[in-house]
Write a structure and sequence with these properties.
- The chain is mainly alpha-helical.
- Helix content is 66%, strand content 3%.
- The model has no long low-confidence stretch (mean pLDDT 82).
Length: 264
């Protein structure tokens, strides 16, 4: 449970912590766009150096970012595997039957691996330096202009804050249910792949039942306290856009321009 990153906030007073959550959220979206402009070693060196600098400025230990990457490592390796063995462009370095490894396929695999690592690291930085409630307020504030198109900005922000809030709770419930099933003799590690998948069912059914029960209790509690949605509500936490936020987004725009200019 100590390795859980989603919804986790590390208290700090770094430059990144003090930025407005709206600026960090916009920077995250822009980062995901410009990282696809990196398609050679120079552009990857630039964006990797920038990401490492931002991590240093956040004053957060690198072990937290490794914990954020670890749950995704198999998906990353799976995507890398497909690029290595199924990209037939370029000079063949090794072949066996229909499987061929080329220099371009190998290069693309390394770049995709780096792309996954950088995106996960930057998104982990966002969650570690921004409280879930501030992140939900940022989403609601950014979606507010879409209210004229009947987009429920407040409800979307509320759902996001509740989702982030209950992720650790669901993990606690999963651990509790697994321990209870193990006490009844269930072994989640034995058998073949089909048997292992079937062994998850005794976890999912109680977990869904517990989640629906908690959601119903939360809805009753909100109605009992007079919750009426976003109309006419004031906010205790006020977002404040500062010069550092403008400079942060301007830096992302400059970085994007450099990557676009240097891409192949």
């Amino acid at each position: 449970m100590d390795k859980l990153i989603i919804g986790r906030y590390i208290t700090g007073n770094s430059l990144i912590h003090r930025m407005d959550p709206r600026a960090k959220l916009l920077a995250m979206f822009f980062y995901i766009v410009i990282i696809f402009w990196a398609n050679n070693w120079l552009t990857y060196l630039i964006i990797s150096s920038f990401t490492f600098l931002i991590v240093i400025l956040s004053q957060i230990k690198l072990s937290f970012f490794l914990d954020g990457i670890r749950p995704m490592i198999w998906i990353i390796l799976f995507s890398t595997f497909f690029q290595i063995f199924f990209n037939t462009n370029g000079n063949i370095l090794w072949s066996w039957g229909i499987i061929k490894i080329t220099n371009i396929g190998l290069m693309q695999a390394v770049m995709i691996f780096l792309r996954f690592i950088l995106i996960i690291s930057f998104s982990t930085l966002l969650t570690l330096t921004t409280t879930p409630l501030s992140l939900a307020d940022a989403v609601e504030s950014l979606l507010r202009p879409l209210v004229i198109f009947k987009v429920p900005a407040h409800e979307i922000g509320l759902m996001l804050s509740l989702s982030l809030r209950f992720v650790p709770t669901l993990m606690d419930d999963t651990t509790r249910i697994m321990n209870a099933q193990k006490a009844r003799g269930v072994d989640f590690g034995e058998g073949n792949l089909v048997q292992k998948v079937r062994s998850i069912i005794p976890i999912l059914i109680p977990l869904f039942a517990s989640s629906f029960k908690r959601a119903d209790a939360l809805a009753i509690a909100m109605e009992a306290r007079g919750y009426q949605g976003g109309d006419g509500r004031t906010k205790y936490r006020q977002l404040s856009w500062k010069l550092i936020d403008t400079l942060g987004l301007l830096t992302m725009v400059i970085l994007g321009g450099i990557l676009y200019f240097l891409k192949n």
